[in-house]
């Protein structure tokens, strides 16, 4: 290894192995790295570094984070050539395969998904799957059988802060979506408070009460106009 400390860290991580679930049972394995693990992005960068150089050699503009990347082309012909180049390099040089479900050619007007965003010529916002993942996390902790207390607000704020910080970039178009999600979260909390879903509860438990409890608003994370 050119960088011994990195080599030792990777070797130690692989030696310790991991647990994977097989038919509901956790089993040890020493092959691969866990999804979302700290070593995964580093190993992806090491493995795909040669692909970066190959794309640069052909004058192609691209953006890559770990093993997710998008190549920008001027026309469909160049896009087909770039796709063939990527597949050839992955399979022949790196002995890897691209995901058939995620690998395709699309126009900017049609749009594409990248790192949780839906990106097109008219919008750059949270993709539908990202929104649903966010709602699933909120649903899990805001069941009506639970109590609405300070600890619950802390848990909700943790999810809101992480999601809003990531998606409230200056180039994104999520303001109206954040407004809807804020209202949806407050609706979930009112249902917890009164153990029901009823329109008149909006007047009984107003926004100012949520503010007093310390509930964060996703809209507040958006950069304010200069």
Whole-number count of domains: 2
Structural class: alpha+beta
What is the total tally of β strands? Answer: 7
Coarse morphology: elongated
Name the helicity range: 40-55%
Radius of gyration: 23 Å
Contiguous runs where pLDDT drops below 50 for at least 5 residues:
none
Q: How many H/I helical runs?
A: 8
Q: Quote the distance from N terminus to C terminus.
A: 48 Å
Q: Mean pLDDT across all residues, rounded?
A: 84
Q: Strand order across the biggest sheet?
A: 5-6-7
> In what range is the share of β-strand residues?
5-15%
Helix and strand pattern: HEEHEEHEEEHHHHH
Query: Looking at the chains present, what oligomeric state does this protein adopt?
Result: single chain
Major sheet, described briefly? 3 strands, antiparallel
Protein name: Group II intron, maturase-specific domain
Organism: Candidatus Kentrum sp. TC
Domain Reverse transcriptase: 1-119
Family: Belongs to the bacterial reverse transcriptase family.
List keywords for this structure.
Mat_intron_G2; two-stranded antiparallel ribbon; RT_dom; elongated; 2 domains; 3-stranded antiparallel β-sheet; 8 helices; alpha+beta
Can you give a write-up of this model?
It is built from eight helices and seven strands. The protein is an alpha+beta fold and 226 residues long. The chain has two domains: 39-105; 126-221. It has a three-stranded antiparallel sheet. A two-stranded antiparallel sheet has the order 1-2. Strands 3-4 form a two-stranded antiparallel sheet. Helix 4 (128-141) packs antiparallel against helix 5 (150-167). The chain is elongated. 9% of the residues are buried. The mean pLDDT is 84.
């Amino acid at each position: 290894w050119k960088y011994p400390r990195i080599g030792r860290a990777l070797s130690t991580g692989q030696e310790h192995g991991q647990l994977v679930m097989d038919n509901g049972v956790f089993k040890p394995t020493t092959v691969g790295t866990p999804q979302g693990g700290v070593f995964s992005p580093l190993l992806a960068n090491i493995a795909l570094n040669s692909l970066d150089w190959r794309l640069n050699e052909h004058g192609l503009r691209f953006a890559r984070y770990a093993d997710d990347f998008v190549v920008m082309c001027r026309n469909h012909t160049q896009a087909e050539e770039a796709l063939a180049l990527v597949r050839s390099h992955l399979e022949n040089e790196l002995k890897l395969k691209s995901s058939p479900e995620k690998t395709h050619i699309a126009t900017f007007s049609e749009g594409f998904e990248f790192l949780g965003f839906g990106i097109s010529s008219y919008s750059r916002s949270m993709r539908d799957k990202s929104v649903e993942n966010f709602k699933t996390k909120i649903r899990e902790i805001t069941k009506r059988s639970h109590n609405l207390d300070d600890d619950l607000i802390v848990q909700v704020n943790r999810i809101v802060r992480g999601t809003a910080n990531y998606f409230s970039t200056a180039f994104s178009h999520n303001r109206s979506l954040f407004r809807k999600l804020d209202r949806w979260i407050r609706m979930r909390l009112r249902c917890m408070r009164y153990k029901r879903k009823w329109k008149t509860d909006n007047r009984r438990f107003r926004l100012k009460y949520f503010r007093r409890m310390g509930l964060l608003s996703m809209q507040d994370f958006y950069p304010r106009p200069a």
